[in-house]
Amino acid sequence: MFPGERDYRAERAAFLSTVESLTPEEFEHGTTLCAGWAPRDVLGHLIGIDEAPAEYVKAAGNVNKANARLVERFRALDRDALLDRGREWAAKPAFLSLTASYGLLGDLAVHHQDVLRGLGRSREVPPPIARAILREGTVFGLKKLRRYRVEPSDTGRAIGRGQVVRGTAEQLGLWLAGRGSVEPELVFATQG
Hints:
single chain; 192 residues; alpha+beta; 2 domains; 4 strands; 7% strand
């Protein structure tokens, strides 16, 4: 088993359970924290990481371009067909994804929260998943970490420098990853 694989497989199953629980309207048109993406688009993106990693190579480092291509490809599938592909994705991760499961866990977990929070839902985030969200946030939030020191209240360790920001690892990770809607949940310590 690869590092992180057990948690990665469990999070895939949890994400699939979430999207399967959505009404057809929520699935097709529900709000997520990913601008312009409905839950179906988030699922398409995640499946695409397994099925078409070459899109990222063809996009020459432009992740947004590769993501857009993948999302567009999966928009051609109706809900039932996309959920069938999602079940296959959850049950049989691609070997390349499994080898990178420790790193991909954060992306998957952030997107799971994107769907849940976008629809006004929540869940108990397991500590390994919260830590993965914070790790993912640190990758995308390097500029913020030059100005802010994030201090998770539940799991993980403090990182960064500057003004102290407190919250859960999940909240801080999402904020660092560009999900500004979680900012009201954070505590910004006054400097001075």
